[in-house]
Design a protein that fits this description.
The chain is mostly helical. It is built from 2 helices and no strands.
Length: 61
C-alpha cells in the first residue's frame, strides 16, 4: 500500500474536512442544514489554523 506524505498543513486541512463532515452529519437533520453547518465548521477550523499559526510565529520571533 502506498504511503501518503502529507505536510502538517495538509494533514490539518484533511482533519478539518473530515471533522466538519462528521459534525455536519451528526448534529443536523436536513441536508441543507448539514451542508451549511459543515461549511461553517470547516471555515472555523481553517480560521483557527491560521490564527494559531500566526500566534506561534509571533511567539517564536
Amino acid at each position: 500500500m502506498p504511503r501518503m506524505a502529507l505536510s502538517h498543513f495538509e494533514a490539518s486541512l484533511l482533519f478539518a474536512l473530515l471533522a466538519s463532515v462528521v459534525l455536519g452529519i451528526v448534529t443536523k437533520r436536513s441536508d441543507r442544514e448539514r451542508l451549511l453547518y459543515g461549511a461553517y465548521c470547516f471555515g472555523c477550523f481553517v480560521a483557527s489554523l491560521f490564527g494559531l499559526g500566526w500566534l506561534m510565529y509571533l511567539g517564536h520571533r
